[in-house]
């Protein structure tokens, strides 16, 4: 017997593998397992970069112009009245005294024709509706379900009255409800400020119950803000609903009502303000705002300016790159530029 | 420490555990506590648990506790489920093994019982192709010679059959007697050494005699081996259950940590410190603001007298708000991508070895990134660089060199003639080649003979001898060997085998010629182990020259010699040998000493030269890997000249004048020291020249250097890119790895044999070649491949991609967490520094574990450069090695990016949504949308190639964000009821989004 040189006899596995392809250990081929899935490999070549910047610029400048135009279409009157409406130096004392007469009249001249509806906002500055202690002091369940009136644990320190009856609506947010009122006259004629539908429809329908009536509200030692008519269900208390949509920033505007009548240029708008709300103790300010609206909302030049700036920047970058590309052109994918070849 | 096993004696059986195997980590009862305990040992998990617990305090939590508990529970459940599943599978396989039926002898009769009921001392019967249920001492087999064959692949991965013999004292017992034997086996307490079993057996009367008979590993059948080519075998159970050699060697290896993991841990620590700083600063600022400003804000209604802990409330709120800085999803994401990298290696067709049907396998799924950062490769030579396919090429017999012209001695007419002429020297030489080994000839039914050899060299020699008509036909156990030579049958009795050890570097065999009764000692071994043993006056110069000549050709040489022994000398020595062999302590050393007493005054017959060809593609692979900045050290047990020859052949070193080889050698310590000094000096001077320097050192000098001059050698190691260490032992290999590791180099050790296991385990990355020396190295390794050339793809493709992908994934994970966190912090400046969360709980949770985690996972498909480009420009790997993609400065870049993006998103949001639009829920959703838009574009920008899966993940996720939020917006009880519908109708929302993402480009 001549066994010959070392042969595959030592490799029973290999023999099996070759004779019977089913038992092979070869990994199964698929594009995924071999990491060979077809892939697109976008390369940021100078041409593409220049084109991209140019395109962004070309797109942004018009959008910016359109936004700015829309914003400029909006006619907006802002009148700060917190200081002027308190005739005395001790402003905090004045506002906290329930017996002082807080009526105050301001007059504005409309610079441009205002088309209805004209939104009447109150603007408060320096009021932290987003403060953690404040923003979470409310009970959404209580506002929605009749049976949840007792769920006031989140509402501290305005959850229950001294004799442990639940306050509805409870919490600091409701308690501090804004209570200045405005009566508007245009050229001396009393103009109706429509306070219907100032709140979100969804809030009225789903967040605030139709069968829930205020109770024990503002009955404590300290009165926060406005009181509520206990015969009107929460879903109809639109001022409250607006107020309960807490603002994310310390300066905010909230809708007071709408004037559904056009106001002409140079018309005199006189507003009689019941100046009740205390922004004096924390140094905040209050203002009355009359504003029309456009497709981008109220007056806000920010977006337009941002778009014009970025558009301009992109265009100039595209130009700059183009010049560079023309003047100092490099071969694409030149290996001599690799760090180890230099 | 000994164990006494009384054979077949029930009264002693309860001293030791039964044969129930348990590999499970948990039981049904301790699973939950034990698993939780294990998971909470990780710092990250402790941190998240602390955060989650703090969130239960409703006074301070900015968000719903569910936003942390949810992901935390999911992450824990995923890990626990995986563990439970693995453990359940182990339990099932244990159960199968435990309930397997086996035959044992009880009260003199054979009984069928479950494997788990085997007790120490039982006699266990096994039939052909059955698995051995516990460690047995063989007492009988079906073969009349008292041998059996076992396959030990499950134990050591070696696929050749091994012969096991019954102890001499049990020879001749028939099956009936085997049922009744009594006796005692004295053996060591259980250990995990599968190569040693130093024990004794003594049978009680009336069985034979009560002489003590030594036992070795050759007398055992170890658990998990299979009985092959033998009808049946029986043995005494000595170790059972988890105390078997296999059970003892089972252990959890130390988990390896990649350089990237270490860096990520470091960065996590830095972020944690940053977070603490933010908490302290904002917490104090918040307290100050509260006392100076917030008390004037009547609507907040702060109490005047507060409990003492109020001072902690705001800092703790910020701690919770900032807790998302450390992304909770990072561990899960990393585990996922790492297992994908490992799968890609397993699946890769291009590193599948057709020849041996071996796919590459990543046993360690956690360290693929390290492959891309390798700086040093320490490679074995034989079987790693070479094929380990030994072919007898040349020989030198009695001063005549054969095979010089043709390069193949087997075709050398002169040699064939010499064989035909019965030239005594040649015949002796061939007889030694055929007999002096441990090869088992196996006769197939058709009459052809194949050989099972543990050593490739022996295989080559026996095959060559048989080609030259000296055919080893059969070998029966330890006794008779039959040789056919020119139709003559020569019977030999093998008296003793003086085994090969790496210290002795030789093996010998004592035989007696059955015809003449003469006794011979046949030896073979390394030249330096045999040549000094030549009898006085023999001219060995021709042999020395031949060895040099062959070594220069890159051939492996073995020196063959013999000596006739007188009967008296043999008997005297045999007694000593037997004594040494039955020693329980230091057996190996004692045996070696006794062997030396016989191995002297040899008649040197000649030199055999065996060729071991380089594997395909080795020089190219080394060339490319060296271009990519990886340094190679070759560590081999072979001799210096062979090693250098192979090194030249495979591009490891260049010949003069391009390269220069520096030798560290010497016979005494002083000489070695001076030599080292000289080499070091040369290295320092020429390190600036473009000359390729390499040093060569041998095991003997290395031993001195490593014990005495470690510092100088460390300096040398740093200076030298290439080194050849020859004649090194397995432990020296491991020491060298350790030395390089101590210099902060990433090391990869690659080898194929049992002698490389220690080095492989020591290195950062161990790669095993599933070679001809069995699978030992491949099993110990983190990666096993079929051929050396696959290393190129493993490192350049898999290693590099893994590194790049993890670098992006980990930094991105921090980026996206920081982004959302910075927005929260910025918001706190406009909300009275009171720790209000801008985002609601659901959004925060979804942002972290869903919106920003899913798309980035497709980075496992990202390829920045094509595989071809990388292999053509291997220098690109320098980026990975130097850690250019993940280091503190790149991380700072991502940190700055997240800060910049946060500021942009926040400022744009609060300006675009100012005045009457600044409603909390809307503004929050605008900021969140802005972040999501940014995320989609950042991921798109950072990825280089897009398959449809990436498109799907990125833009599908983007769409999912809108779908999910629109869905939530339809739930009347949700805080964000109708919000998303309102926003999507506003042109200003879309305009704001568009401007947010454009800012990203600047």
Automatic annotation (TrEMBL), chain A:
Main location: membrane
Keywords from the UniProt entry: Membrane, Transmembrane, Transmembrane helix
Source superkingdom: Eukaryota
Biased composition (Polar residues): 17-28
Subcellular location: Membrane
InterPro entries in the record: CDC50/LEM3_fam (IPR005045)
GO annotations of cellular component type: endoplasmic reticulum; Golgi apparatus; plasma membrane
Membrane-spanning intervals of the chain: 48-70, 305-327
Disordered: region residues: 1-28
Pfam families per UniProt: CDC50
Record-stated family: Belongs to the CDC50/LEM3 family.
Protein name stated in the entry: ALA-interacting subunit
Species whose genome carries this gene: Aegilops tauschii subsp. strangulata
Automatic annotation (TrEMBL), chain B:
Annotated GO biological process: phospholipid translocation
Domain P-type ATPase C-terminal, chain residue ranges per copy: 778-1001
All copies of domain P-type ATPase N-terminal, residue ranges: 5-69
InterPro entries attached to this UniProt entry: ATPase_P-typ_cyto_dom_N, ATPase_P-typ_P_site, ATPase_P-typ_TM_dom_sf, ATPase_P-typ_transduc_dom_A_sf, ATPase_P-type_domA, HAD-like_sf, HAD_sf, P-type_ATPase_IV
Binding-site positions, Mg(2+): 380, 382, 752, 756
GO CC annotation terms, alphabetical: plasma membrane
Cofactor: Mg(2+)
Entries under Pfam families matching the protein: Cation_ATPase, E1-E2_ATPase, Hydrolase_3, PhoLip_ATPase_C, PhoLip_ATPase_N
Key word Glycosyltransferase present: no
EC number assigned by the record: 7.6.2.1
Protein's cellular compartments: Endomembrane system; Membrane
Record's catalysed reaction(s): ATP + H2O + phospholipidSide 1 = ADP + phosphate + phospholipidSide 2
Top-rank taxon: Eukaryota
Recorded GO MF terms: ATP binding; ATP hydrolysis activity; ATPase-coupled intramembrane lipid transporter activity; magnesium ion binding
Spans traversing the lipid bilayer: 43-60, 270-289, 818-839, 894-914, 926-953, 959-979
Residues annotated as binding ATP: 380-382, 458, 500, 524, 556, 636-638, 727, 733, 755-756
Active site (UniProt): 380
Keywords linked to the UniProt accession: ATP-binding, Magnesium, Membrane, Metal-binding, Nucleotide-binding, Translocase, Transmembrane, Transmembrane helix
Membrane topology according to the record: Multi-pass membrane protein
Domain P-type ATPase A: 99-160
PANTHER family registered for this protein in UniProt: PHOSPHOLIPID-TRANSPORTING ATPASE (PTHR24092:SF19), PROBABLE PHOSPHOLIPID-TRANSPORTING ATPASE (PTHR24092)
Recorded family membership: Belongs to the cation transport ATPase (P-type) (TC 3.A.3) family. Type IV subfamily.
Name of the featured protein: Phospholipid-transporting ATPase
Organism: Aegilops tauschii subsp. strangulata
């Amino acid at each position: 017997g001549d066994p010959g040189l070392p042969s595959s006899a030592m490799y029973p596995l290999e023999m099996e593998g070759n004779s019977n392809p089913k038992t092979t250990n070869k990994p199964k081929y698929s594009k995924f397992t071999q990491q060979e899935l077809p892939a697109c490999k976008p390369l940021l070549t100078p041409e593409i970069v220049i084109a991209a910047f140019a395109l962004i610029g070309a797109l942004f400048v018009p959008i910016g112009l359109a936004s700015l135009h829309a914003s400029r279409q909006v006619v907006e009157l802002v009148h700060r009245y917190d200081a002027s409406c308190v005739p005395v130096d001790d402003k905090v004392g004045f506002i906290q005294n329930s017996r002082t007469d807080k009526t105050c009249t301001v007059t504005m001249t409309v610079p441009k024709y205002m088309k209805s509806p004209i939104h009447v906002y109150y603007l408060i500055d320096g009021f932290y509706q987003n403060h953690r202690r404040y923003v979470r002091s409310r009970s959404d369940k209580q506002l929605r379900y009749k049976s949840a009136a007792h769920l006031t644990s989140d509402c501290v320190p305005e959850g229950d009255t001294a004799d442990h009856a639940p306050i509805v609506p409870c919490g600091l947010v409701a308690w501090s409800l804004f209570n200045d009122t405005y009566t508007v006259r245009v050229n001396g004629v009393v103009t109706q400020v429509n306070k219907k539908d100032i709140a979100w429809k969804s809030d009225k329908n789903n967040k605030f119950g139709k069968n829930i009536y205020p109770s024990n509200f503002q009955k404590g030692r300290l009165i926060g803000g406005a009181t509520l008519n206990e015969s009107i269900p929460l879903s109809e208390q639109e001022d409250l609903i607006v107020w309960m949509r807490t603002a994310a920033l310390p300066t905010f505007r909230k809708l007071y009502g709408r004037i559904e009548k056009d106001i002409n240029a140079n018309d005199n708008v006189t507003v009689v303000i019941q100046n009740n709300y205390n922004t004096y103790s924390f140094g905040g300010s209050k203002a009355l705002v009359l504003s029309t609206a456009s497709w981008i909302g109220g007056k806000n030049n920010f977006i337009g300016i941002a778009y014009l700036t970025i558009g301009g920047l992109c265009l100039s970058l595209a130009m700059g790159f183009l010049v560079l590309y023309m003047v100092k052109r490099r071969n694409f994918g030149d290996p001599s530029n690799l760090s180890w070849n230099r | 420490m000994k164990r006494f096993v009384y054979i077949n004696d029930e009264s002693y059986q309860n001293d030791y555990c039964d044969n129930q195997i348990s590999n499970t980590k948990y039981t049904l009862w301790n699973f939950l506590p034990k698993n939780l305990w294990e998971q909470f040992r990780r710092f990250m998990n402790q941190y998240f648990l602390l955060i989650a617990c703090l969130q239960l305090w409703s006074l301070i939590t900015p968000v719903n506790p569910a936003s942390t508990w949810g992901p935390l529970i999911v992450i824990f459940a995923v890990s626990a489920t995986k563990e439970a599943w693995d453990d359940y599978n182990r339990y099932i396989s244990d159960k199968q093994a435990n309930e397997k039926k086996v035959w044992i002898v009880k009260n003199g009769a054979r009984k069928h019982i479950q494997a788990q009921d085997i007790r120490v001392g039982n006699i266990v019967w096994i039939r052909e192709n059955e698995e051995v249920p516990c460690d047995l001492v063989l007492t009988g087999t079906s073969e009349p010679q008292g041998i059996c064959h076992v396959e030990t692949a499950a134990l050591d991965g070696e696929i050749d059959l091994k012969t096991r013999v019954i102890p001499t004292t049990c020879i001749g017992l028939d099956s009936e007697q085997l049922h009744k034997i009594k006796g005692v086996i004295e053996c060591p307490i259980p250990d995990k050494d599968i190569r040693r079993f130093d024990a004794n057996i003594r049978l009680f009367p009336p069985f034979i005699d009560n002489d003590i008979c030594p036992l070795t590993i050759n007398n055992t059948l170890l658990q998990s081996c299979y009985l092959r080519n033998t009808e049946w075998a029986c043995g005494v159970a000595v170790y059972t259950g988890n105390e078997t050699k296999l059970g003892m060697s089972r252990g959890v290896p130390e988990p390896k940590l990649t350089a990237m993991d270490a860096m990520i841990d470091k960065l996590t620590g830095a972020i944690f410190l940053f977070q603490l700083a933010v908490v302290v600063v904002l917490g104090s600022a918040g307290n100050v603001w509260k006392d100076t400003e917030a008390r004037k804000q009547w609507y907040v209604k702060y109490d005047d007298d507060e409990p003492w802990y109020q001072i902690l409330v705001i800092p703790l709120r910020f701690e919770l708000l900032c807790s998302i800085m450390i992304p909770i999803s990072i561990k899960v994401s990393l585990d996922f991508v790492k297992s994908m990298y490992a799968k890609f290696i397993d699946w890769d067709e291009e590193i599948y070895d057709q020849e041996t049907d071996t796919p590459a396998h990543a046993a360690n799924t956690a360290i693929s990134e390290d492959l891309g950062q390798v700086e040093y490769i320490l490679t074995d030579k034989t079987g790693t660089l070479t094929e380990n396919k030994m072919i007898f090429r040349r020989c030198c017999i009695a001063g005549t060199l054969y095979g010089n012209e043709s390069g193949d001695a087997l075709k050398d007419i002169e040699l064939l003639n010499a064989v035909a002429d019965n030239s005594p020297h040649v015949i002796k030489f061939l007889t030694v080649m055929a007999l002096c080994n441990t090869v088992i000839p196996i006769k197939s039914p058709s009459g052809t003979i194949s050989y099972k050899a543990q050593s490739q060299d022996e295989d080559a020699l026996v095959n060559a001898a048989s080609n030259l008509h000296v055919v080893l036909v059969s070998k029966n156990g330890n006794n008779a060997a039959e040789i056919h030579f020119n139709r003559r049958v020569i019977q030999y009795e093998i008296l003793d085998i003086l085994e090969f050890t790496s210290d002795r570097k030789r093996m010998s065999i004592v035989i007696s010629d059955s015809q003449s009764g003469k006794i011979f000692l046949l030896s073979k071994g390394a030249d330096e182990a045999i040549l000094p043993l030549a009898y006085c006056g023999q001219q060995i110069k021709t042999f020395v020259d031949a060895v040099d000549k062959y070594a220069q050709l890159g051939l492996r040489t073995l020196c063959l010699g013999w000596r006739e022994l007188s009967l008296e000398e043999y008997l005297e020595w045999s007694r000593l040998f037997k004594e040494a062999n039955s020693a329980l302590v230091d057996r190996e050393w004692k045996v070696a000493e006794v062997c030396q007493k016989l191995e002297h005054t040899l008649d040197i017959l000649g030199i055999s030269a065996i060729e071991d060809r380089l594997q395909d593609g080795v020089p190219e692979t080394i060339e490319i890997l060296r271009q990519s900045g990886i340094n190679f050290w070759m560590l081999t047990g072979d001799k210096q000249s062979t090693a250098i020859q192979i090194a030249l052949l495979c591009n490891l070193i260049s010949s003069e004048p391009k390269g220069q080889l520096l030798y560290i050698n010497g016979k005494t310590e002083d000489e070695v020291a001076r030599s080292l000094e000289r080499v070091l000096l040369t290295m320092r001077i020429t390190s600036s020249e473009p000359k390729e320097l390499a040093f060569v050192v041998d095991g003997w000098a290395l031993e001195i250097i490593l014990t005495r001059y470690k510092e100088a050698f460390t300096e040398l190691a740093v200076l030298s890119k290439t080194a050849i260490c020859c004649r090194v032992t397995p432990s020296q290999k491991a020491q060298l790895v350790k030395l390089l590791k101590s210099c902060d180099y990433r090391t990869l050790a690659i080898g194929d044999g049992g002698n490389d296991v220690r080095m492989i385990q020591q290195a950062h990355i161990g790669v095993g070649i599933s070679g001809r020396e069995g699978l030992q190295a491949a099993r110990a390794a983190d990666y096993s491949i079929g051929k050396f050339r696959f290393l190129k793809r493993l490192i350049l493709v898999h290693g590099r991609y893994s590194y790049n992908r993890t670098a992006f994934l980990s930094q991105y994970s921090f980026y996206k967490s920081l982004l959302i966190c910075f927005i929260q912090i910025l918001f706190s400046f406009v909300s009275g520094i009171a720790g209000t969360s801008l985002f609601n709980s659901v959004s925060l949770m979804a942002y972290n574990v869903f919106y920003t985690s899913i798309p980035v996972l497709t980075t496992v498909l990202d390829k920045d450069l094509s595989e071809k480009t990388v292999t053509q420009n291997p220098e690109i790997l320098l980026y990975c090695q130097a850690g250019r993609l993940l280091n503190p400065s790149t991380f700072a870049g991502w940190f700055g990016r997240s800060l910049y993006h946060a500021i942009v998103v926040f400022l744009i949001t609060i300006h675009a949504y100012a005045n009457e639009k600044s409603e909390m829920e809307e503004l929050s959703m605008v900021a969140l949308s802005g972040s999501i838009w940014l995320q989609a574009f950042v991921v798109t920008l950072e990825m280089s190639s897009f398959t449809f899966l990436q498109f799907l993940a990125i833009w599908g996720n983007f769409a999912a964000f809108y779908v999910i939020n629109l869905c939530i917006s339809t739930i009347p009880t949700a805080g964000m009821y109708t919000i998303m519908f309102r926003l999507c109708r506003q042109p200003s929302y879309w305009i704001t989004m568009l401007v947010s993402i454009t800012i990203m480009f600047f």
